[in-house]
Write a structure and sequence with these properties.
The protein is mostly helical and about 210 residues long. About 70% of the residues lie in helices and about 0% in strands.
Length: about 210
């Protein structure tokens, strides 16, 4: 991420902050789908997710996603589909809602939260040495996901090109994306986001998306 990117102050509205956090979840879901099908990802969207996951103590809400809502544009576009304004990709939506379900399981498992926190602290040290998106860091994020979230009975089955999914660093990149989705899911919950609101408060989500466009 470009360190000179100006900080675009996040809205004070709880709904808008929830929308930004939720966009992170669905951006992760979108990139998992893209990786599994093509082996490629949008660099800006990818860096935003990985940096948000590695930075366990951001200076501000805005700093989590690199200071500008456009860093979450992929996720915001997916939310537009969720509220019915654009064509939805059912696979991406399934990944996104599965991430929210896993986040809820993690949130109530204090031991796993502690373990994950310790792992992310170590990974942050790695990132300071190698750089945030270095493959060693990505591999460690993937390993952290595999040793924690992947142990739940509920798991995300990724669909895609089998040869791509088995290629070098691809499992680690996919798991790192999923870890980022969990990170933004926790942020969404911290900001007051709840599954029922996605059903009963769609107008509020639409207004929040309008304020971020």
């Amino acid at each position: 991420m470009n360190p000179t990117t100006p900080i675009h102050r996040a809205p004070d509205s709880p709904a808008a902050r929830q929308a930004l956090a939720l966009a992170g979840v669905f951006q992760a879901a979108s990139l998992v789908d893209e990786l599994a099908r093509t082996g490629q990802v949008d660099p800006r969207a990818w860096e935003t997710l990985i940096e948000a996951t590695v930075d366990t103590n951001p200076a501000s809400f805005e700093a989590i996603y690199g200071g500008h809502p456009n860093n979450l544009r992929r996720g915001l576009d997916t939310l537009e589909a969720l509220v019915g304004r654009k064509q939805a990709n059912p696979v991406v939506l399934r990944y996104g809602f599965s991430l929210l379900m896993l986040m809820n399981k993690l949130r109530t498992d204090n031991d796993m939260m502690d373990t994950l926190g310790q792992k992310l602290t170590r990974i942050q040290g790695q990132a300071e040495h190698f750089g945030t998106t270095h493959e060693n860091v990505v591999a460690s994020l993937g390993e952290a996901y595999q040793e924690t979230i992947s142990t739940f009975k509920t798991r995300i089955v990724v669909q895609g090109d089998p040869s791509l999914l088995q290629s070098r660093m691809m499992p680690e990149r996919v798991r790192a994306c999923l870890m980022a989705g969990i990170r933004f899911g926790l942020l969404w919950h911290q900001q007051g986001g709840r599954r029922w609101k996605l059903v009963f408060q769609r107008k509020a989500l639409r207004r929040a998306l309008d304020s971020l466009s």
